[in-house]
Specification:
This protein is α+β, with helices and mostly antiparallel strands and about 375 residues long. It has 9 helices and 13 strands.
């Protein structure tokens, strides 16, 4: 995708591609046994990551959607793929790659669960300092309500991690939805998406961060992803086509389609990353003039004075336009907040008045008697 062409992680990430691959040996089965994974007889591969065209079926889902600055990518690396990037806590704390939303659901109900053939690489912090998850979406939407299961990826060698369907719990964002039973095989007859996520958040009702979480670089080598079963599948599955970007945009609510250009201008990823960088520099004690000089120096180094002047002017116009367009939205938001507070105050006053009248009624009755 165009994003993969633009992503730059620097020399540290580039070194990931020189990490040697561990051959698949009997030790991999031992690793799976140590992880407490069930022995299965039948596996059906949905994605073979040694095929470059398979990666076009995936898209990133990083914390930039909620104002974070983490970043990831999925790239071909010989006979496998690398899910790699950088986790940052500022404004978020997760990175993910997911199947593009299917036009028709994928029926996985004949299986017992899903597997991922992978290896977590020793890049940045130890893999145990992050939470690794798989998610299954059973609705054709992009909401934050999905079924999710945490797992411990193998290290030191390639191995298969099996996740039974009943290991998946319904979550809203990073929090468990209380009182909802685990995912059942029957519910996976309409699977629209599978995701892989690395995060600072545990799968819990509080959505708390993992104790000892460390941000920084991460990498996982992916070989295959699919389903497993203790019995032969009744039929061979074909992967439904993915929705095109135009189809996904068309399926969005009318209000969102109308506001998307404005939202992209005000809350788009480049804007959020600039704001995050500004906050970081402010925390280090830099002044507005120092930040302006630093930005100018970067742009000059990248393309010369003329290019720097053009980019600086474009950023200024974009910021001014975004402020002007977002002003009505900001005022509307303040009005909604103020109205909500007023309604709560009125309800509280009416409740107190009703209680006073209720308490005063017996005294009035006694006086009249």
């Amino acid at each position: 995708s165009s994003f993969r062409g633009r992503m730059r992680f620097g020399p540290a990430i580039a070194l990931l591609h020189s990490v040697p691959r561990a051959p698949r040996t009997p030790g991999a089965a031992l690793t799976a046994s140590i992880l407490g994974l069930a022995d299965v007889s039948y596996r059906s591969v949905l994605y073979d990551f040694s095929q470059p065209d398979q990666l076009e079926e995936w898209e990133r889902i990083d914390d930039v959607i909620m104002g974070g600055v983490s970043s990831s990518r999925l790239v071909v690396d010989g006979s496998s793929a690398l899910f790699e990037g950088r986790l940052r806590s500022d404004g978020g704390g997760f990175c993910g790659q997911r199947m593009r939303l299917r036009a028709e659901p994928l029926d996985l109900s004949a299986a017992d669960g899903v597997f991922v053939d992978c290896e977590a690489l020793s890049v940045g912090a130890e893999p145990s300092k992050r939470v690794w998850k798989m998610a299954i979406r059973t609705k054709q939407d992009r909401g934050e309500v999905v079924y999710q299961a945490a797992f411990k990826p193998p290290t030191g060698g390639r191995a298969t991690v099996n996740l039974p369907f009943d290991a998946f719990r319904l979550v809203r964002g990073p929090r468990l939805v209380p009182g909802v039973p685990p995912l059942s095989a029957a519910q996976t007859n309409e699977t629209y998406q599978i995701s892989l996520v690395v995060s600072k958040f545990e799968v819990s009702e509080t959505g708390a961060a993992l104790p000892g979480f460390e941000e920084g670089l991460f990498a996982m080598r992916l070989h295959e992803l699919g389903t497993f079963s203790t019995r032969p599948p009744p039929f061979s599955r074909s992967m439904p086509r993915a929705l095109s970007e135009r189809e996904q945009a068309k399926a969005a609510p009318p209000l969102l389609r109308l506001l998307r250009p404005l939202l992209g201008l005000v809350f788009g990823e480049p804007t959020r990353r600039r704001r995050a960088a500004t906050r970081l520099l402010e925390a280090r004690g830099s002044s507005r003039l120092q930040r302006a000089r630093l930005g100018w120096a970067w742009r000059v180094a990248a393309g010369g004075p003329l290019v720097a002047a053009r980019k600086t002017a474009a950023l200024g116009l974009k910021d001014a336009g975004g402020f002007a367009l977002s002003l009505p939205v900001r005022l509307l938001f303040k009005l909604i907040v103020w109205s909500s507070k007023m309604v709560k105050t009125i309800i509280r006053a009416l409740t107190l008045l009703a209680e006073e009248r209720k308490e005063g009624a017996p005294a009035a009755n006694a006086a009249s008697a």
